[in-house]
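<backbone_tokenisation>
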Amino acid sequence: MKEFIIGSNEAGQRFDKYLAKLLKEAPKSFFYKMMRKKNITLNGKKAAGGEKLVEGDKVKLFLSDETFEKFAGDASTPVARAEGKLDILYEDEDILFINKPAGMLSQPDNSRSPSLVEYVTGYLLKGQAITEESLKTFHPSVCNRLDRNTSGIVAAGKSLMGLQELSRLFHDRTLHKFYLCLADGVIQKEKYIKGYLHKDEKCNKVVVQETKQTDALPIETKYRPLCNNGKATLLEVELITGRPHQIRAHLASIGHPIVGDRKYGDARCNAYYMEKYHLQHQLLHAYRLVIPDISGSLAYLSGRTFLAPLPGLFQNILHKEHLEEKKHYENLA
């Protein structure tokens, strides 16, 4: 017999969802059958699976060691984690806001490069905010994604509640997300642009169209020019919808691609910044996150604004290209 005590990171979810994580190799039919036979109990009683767990609940599994090990998976294989210094902008018991550098993945992909998720896991393990035991049923994760070569604010959930609440706020577009980017060409006026985005899976590139086509998703982007030097414009961009590559593709579609963007950018423009500054990624930075009045478990964040400082190379380019005299971006909060 094995007994598990529900902690804060397991509480709040359905019992069957918890069992699916604990016995990740088992078909759902197995643990429903075990619950019917009382081989799996909740607080010493027969359970149906739909019960919402609370902290302190006791789960007992009357299974042989061989059966448990078979369905729990290889316990000797650790959850992926990485160690490295994170630029933490804000942290409490449930959430983290991190200033992600350009070049780091937000989430794992097939490249096997460590992602921010692995770095967060390593950070929380080192600080004892989570344990190896708790990782069996809860994995901390990020709630929003930035392209690998886009820097700036990424939110992560340290607890199940924090992860669920933050993910809901991002999904419902409750939060206001602002970016800074250096766009090729001169832009004089603020504009609200709309379009439709279609993704070409073969080349992992999106196309922006003015009219709706099959499988295209609506996109909305708002931008405001802060200053220009006659060749490029520093823009503040508000992301209304959040589609992959949206800002990059949308600005390119109106003739003002982001400086350094190899996928959607201008080759001649990029060559200039590469030769002069060794720039190898787009100058796009998620620098401001504004939280309006919200209810729920994270209501204490209502009215807060979080800022992520610009990366050094971005700042240096603005300085050398005479785009920071008034330091507009520092006064936007």
